[in-house]
Specification:
The chain is of the alpha/beta class. It is built from 9 helices and 30 strands. The chain has a 14-stranded mixed beta sheet with strand order 6-7-9-11-13-15-17-18-20-22-24-26-28-30, with no helix packed on it. Strand 1 (about 25-30) and strand 2 form a beta hairpin. Helix 3 (about 205-220) crosses helix 7 (about 265-285) and helix 5 packs across helix 7. The chain is rod-shaped.
């Protein structure tokens, strides 16, 4: 078959067009020879190449432009944050007060997870600013968009501490103490997330800032305690912020819609203060879950009420109700806490110093626990306190002098602790003090003269077991209202002065009737004979305990004047002579211990008639004496020691 010249030309044209198309990028690849050939560029090909290169340049410039725009946006945000901080600083230097104005914002949960009231959730550690403790930090919310439009923006709370009102920004120092003012200028912390992922922009709030600022005034410290995750202050702060749904209804917050902030009312401020201090008391004294009772449920004694109570029980500590309803708490009609009674409840560790902020507190009753360490000096801030009962704990150290500020104190009981040091004169500042029990400690004497001033109205004094030392001060006669004086095992020496029974008004110097009902001086080194004033003046005595001393001489016949006497304890002394029959007139006597002395003769029948198991020949009623002891012994015992013949004694030594 012949091929026409026209077909040949057509085939050549096809080949040429194919080569031209394949060489548009300057290269030709022959499919069969497996090698690359570079063809010369035509003018049209060069223009095509230039157009491609121009397109690439425009694409690169476009990308760079987007990067520059993004950097400008970030720079604008940073400048806004710095401008906000500088604005607050300038306001501080002009007014002398730190402003927490409308630029403050933060992340707030709409719904507070009630959860386990004893375990705080979503812990938040506030940032430790360089400002003074009473100054609130400025919080700015920065919203960073994400790539995906369906993802909620991430809100980061930037906490910028304002400068100290007294020094200004230029005097701030960094953590390293170098004096740089930009070390801690801006610190970023993420606020607590909600229990579920938000699908919209979260509510902007100043609530966290307001609460943190208020708690700083309560703790009277820096953010260190609130920031320390091991501290009870941090646990209490987190519970207040994240778990306390009841308080969240009371405290104000700012919304993005109206951009306004309410001022906390006095009632809301009080609720925050009281709930924080009680929560702190719980976390401080219940570190190892040692509380015995957390709610007043009247349940079985076998039930551990701190773990087996309903979550909605209104009497439970840390419940979502008013703190006035919590176990052991009593409030007045204004909602102020006036009494805390958590006695015999397994409390451990220390009393938090923040308790001094409960200015309305009248009764603090924490006896029979395991509280330790020293008493906080802030206890002196409780100006309205009337009863302080801390007996049977492990409190140590001296009595804080600040106790002198508690001018309404009526009862001070720190019996059976490990306190020591001199007896502080400040303990006797309150003219209302009636009951003083320091027994079972290591306080040393002498007794301060402030104890015997005209303004003191002491009724009960117990210093038993303290190494007071010295002699019995005669100034005790000025305690005209004194009904009970106990100074056993107090290292006392000397005689028993009769002047202490001649009660005298220190202002008029007039004698007044002795009110003394209990006198206990056992376990000392007192000596000499007993003064007649004891039997002729102190006729109101019900208990007379002079055992384990070195008293000598005969027992006065005037002992029969103590007609109200119920207990007469003279054992382990050196009394001698016969037992006076006038003791038989003490018809209220229940216990009489005369053993381990030098008495002799026969127990008077008048005394035996008082013994309960004595039967009268005429069938009369038995007496009141339930225990009678003397140095009586069996007839067949032979020695040279004096003894008392007694057929009615319960115990013979």
């Amino acid at each position: 078959m012949e091929v026409s010249s026209q077909q040949v030309e057509m085939e050549k044209e096809k080949i040429y067009q194919t080569k031209k198309r394949r060489s548009s990028l300057g290269e030709y690849f022959h499919p069969h020879r497996q090698r690359k050939k570079t063809l010369p560029y035509t003018q049209e090909q060069q223009k095509e190449i230039q157009r491609e290169q121009t397109k690439k340049k425009f694409k690169t410039i476009f990308k760079i432009g987007w990067i520059v725009v993004a950097l400008l946006v970030v720079a604008a945000v940073v400048i806004a944050v710095i401008a906000t901080r500088d604005g607050n600083e300038s306001t501080t230097s002009g007014d002398g007060d730190t402003q927490n104005g409308g630029n403050e914002s933060g992340d707030m949960d709409d719904i507070f997870d009630s959860g386990d009231p004893f375990e705080p959730v979503n812990p938040v550690n506030p940032v430790n600013p360089t400002a003074s403790p009473s100054t609130a930090p400025t919080t700015t919310s920065v919203v960073t968009p994400t790539a995906s439009p369906s993802t909620a923006p991430t809100t980061t709370s930037v906490v910028t501490p304002p400068p100290s009102p007294t020094t200004g920004r230029e005097n701030n120092t960094g953590n390293d103490g170098s004096g740089s003012d930009d070390t801690d200028a801006t610190t970023t912390t993420t606020l607590p997330p909600t229990t579920t992922s938000p699908t919209a922009t979260p509510i902007q709030s100043t609530r966290e800032t307001i609460i943190a600022s208020k708690l700083l005034t309560i703790t009277n410290s820096s953010f260190a305690l609130l920031e320390d995750t091991t501290s009870p202050q941090n646990k209490a702060y987190n519970w207040i912020l994240n778990n306390d749904a009841y308080l969240s209804l009371l405290y104000p917050f700012k919304t993005a819609a109206d951009n306004t902030t309410s001022t906390p009312t006095e009632e809301n401020e009080k609720a925050l203060t009281q709930r924080y201090i009680l929560t702190l008391l719980f976390f401080e004294t219940n570190e190892f879950n040692t509380w015995d009772v957390c709610a007043d449920l009247n349940t079985n004694d076998d039930v551990d009420e701190c773990e087996n109570v309903e979550e909605d029980d209104t009497r439970r500590f840390l419940s979502q109700t008013s703190e006035c309803d919590w176990y052991g708490i009593t409030c007045d009609v204004d909602g102020s806490i006036v009494s805390i009674d958590l006695s015999d409840n397994g409390l451990r560790n220390t009393i938090p110093p923040e308790i001094g902020q409960l200015s309305s507190l009248q009764h603090l009753i924490l006896h029979k626990n395991r509280l330790s360490s020293t008493l906080p000096t802030t206890i002196g801030l409780l100006a309205n306190l009337e009863i302080l009962n801390l007996n049977n704990n492990r409190i140590e150290g001296p009595m804080p002098t600040e106790i002198g500020s508690m001018t309404k104190l009526q009862i001070l009981n720190v019996r059976k602790n490990d306190m020591d040091g001199p007896m502080s004169p400040e303990m006797f500042t309150s003219s209302n003090l009636e009951y003083l029990d320091l027994s079972g400690n290591d306080f040393v004497g002498p007794l301060p003269t402030e104890m015997f001033t005209s303004t003191i109205n002491l009724v009960f004094v117990d210093l038993t077991g303290n190494p007071i030392g010295g002699s019995i001060p005669t100034e005790l006669k000025y305690l005209t209202q004194l009904a009970s004086l106990e100074m056993g095992s107090a290292d006392l020496t000397g005689t028993l002065p009769g002047e202490i029974f001649q009660t005298t008004d220190i202002v008029t110097s007039n004698r007044v009737t002795s009110m003394l009902e209990t006198l206990s001086l056992e376990g000392n080194s007192l000596n000499g004979s007993l003064p007649e004033e004891l039997f002729n003046v102190a006729t109101s005595l019900r208990i007379l305990d002079l055992g384990i001393n070195d008293f000598t001489g005969e027992l006065s016949e005037n002992a029969g004047n103590l007609l109200h006497l119920e207990q007469l304890l003279l054992w382990y002394n050196n009394f001698d002579g016969s037992i006076p029959s006038t003791l038989g007139s003490l018809t209220l006597l229940e216990i009489m211990s005369l053993d381990n002395n030098q008495f002799n003769g026969t127990m008077p029948p008048e005394v035996c008639n008082l013994v309960t198991f004595a039967s009268n020949s005429d069938g009369g009623d038995a007496g009141s004496l339930i225990f009678l002891a003397s140095d009586c012994k069996d007839d067949d015992e032979e020695d040279n020691m004096p003894f008392v013949e007694c057929s009615c004694c319960h115990s013979c030594q």
